[in-house]
Amino acid sequence: MSSATPKFRLNSVFKQLMSVHWWMAGCFLLLLPSGQIMAGLQGEVSYRELLFATHKSLGVLVLLLLGWRVYLLVRVWGKKYRKHLPKLTGNWYFTTGLHSLLYLMMFAVPMSGYWLSNAYHTNNISLFGLPMPDLFPVNSDAASQAGVIHDRTSKAFVIFIFIHFTCQRKVVKANWRRLSTWTKTKWSKPN
How many angstroms separate the CA atoms of 149 and 160, rounded? Predict the structure, then answer.
């Protein structure tokens, strides 16, 4: 065995960070369309309460995952930049700025939704049945402001996600190839 061969651990911090990244991406793939559906609901529909409860629970889950993700990110940065500092190029500033905005939106969107829910009622947010504390007071005047902020931050977040997706198209293609190869081998019938 060569000493130049890198040793990859299955539980590396970077792999944990990427795992949380994809879990959060999945949550946002459910949150963003469900929010649009909720905004367009007219009158009473049978699935209204379930949709709102699921949306709120996913929002709380995203906030918890974000806390874990930031912890992992600090650990990755500590390992990465301990040996050498980054080259401060235009690309580094763009990438760092975009990711900073994405992290800000990952916090702002669910937190503004939390504010919106608390502005209407007390004790109306749960994590899949587990009651969450109220972080904001009931205030009908603030509810409309919270609604506007939640709507605008979620739309800005979609724009930043699109930019991130476009900038990472090589990674997206590689992951797509890996996934399609895995599904072909997993689901193909033996001859």
Answer: 16
